[in-house]
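Researcher: Following up on the earlier apo prediction. This time include the ligand. It's nicotinamide-adenine-dinucleotide, with the SMILES given after the sequence.
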Amino acid sequence: MARKNEGEFMGHILVTGGAGYIGSHTVRYLAEKGHRIIVVDNLVYGHRDALPSEQVDLIVGDIGDKQLMTEVFKRYDIQAVLHFAAYAYVGESVTDPARYYANNLVAPLNMLEVMREFNCKRIIFSSTCATYGHPQYLPIDEKHPQRPINPYGKSKLMLEEIIKDYYTAYAFRYAFLRYFNACGASHDGAIGEDHNPETHLIPLILDAASGEREAITIYGTDYDTEDGTCVRDYIHVEDLASAHGAALDRLLGDGDSLMVNLGTGQGHSIKEVIDAAKAVTGREFDVRLGQRRPGDPAVLVANPEMAKKALDWEAEVRDIEDIIRSAWNWKTGPKGGKYSK
Ligand SMILES: NC(=O)c1ccc[n+]([C@@H]2O[C@H](COP(=O)([O-])OP(=O)(O)OC[C@H]3O[C@@H](n4cnc5c(N)ncnc54)[C@H](O)[C@@H]3O)[C@@H](O)[C@H]2O)c1
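Model: Understood. Below is the ligand-bound prediction.
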């Protein structure tokens, strides 16, 4: 790595967790826009292959490692941090909260201290609709009370609160992007979702369609929704990437901090998603009906108006079949929906 006084390394954007699912799509989007990017990812869940290696420097390490992060900030002139790195298995956060508070709260706190030391005060944070907890009204806007019901959501809300205090005391500027259900893959099929274990609905359904899973189980068919199954707001990962681009432009300019929901504003039930997957793939597969899981609200749909106003952004991929088609292309493409490393 070259020193930051060597001009070619001036003005980088640091992406934590950039080798993960949403981070890698965002890295690709920002690299195409001409940003110089470095990624810090410990590869616990991320994939080296998800990154365009010729355009991006990957530093394999932990964002909670102050010594490493100090070295990174010394070597690059970092103008802003896009913070994706976190653990995101809601169920595991209930059974092992220590792992979540250590990684989603203590580690970024260490990073914030290094940012402060180097006077880097712009942060875009991957927050979540899980910070709202059970919806009190729909669609969910940013004024909705934040009462998370699991340690994962709590860790995200606590970090929001800490960053707000850094704004007040140290003049940090932030964008909290509260994603609803991220899904899909890049439209050219080059990168996509490869979580291990996978818990997200669309890849699980496509595993059933491809025969890698015996069946897909619907947890709960007696919700107060049109067809009795849960309704969610599915936001395409490339739309999330462009929202990060808009938030970055705002913070690199003179724009003030903001917190916005990122969703389409439309809900789809699990049954609808399954039917759409059958139509897109042309495959039949077994669908099993299971009991409700604790903690699953019937409906989670974003009010996307604030994002439209503040970022001049809205989701472009609105058709659930288009979303599924992009995920299916990735799964049936050369990599078979799996990275080699
Ligand atoms: N996927 C969704 O639907 C969704 C919804 C709301 C919010 N989010 C948030 O968006 C972010 C990205 O989600 P994703 O689905 O891309 O997850 P992901 O697991 O694919 O990506 C997270 C990346 O962070 C890395 N990482 C984790 N802890 C780290 C650490 N301490 N140091 C360095 N690297 C670390 C992992 O190796 C991984 O590459 C997460 O913060 C998640 O909480 C995701």
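Model: The longest strand covers residues 122-128.
Researcher: Noted. I'll compare it with the apo version next.
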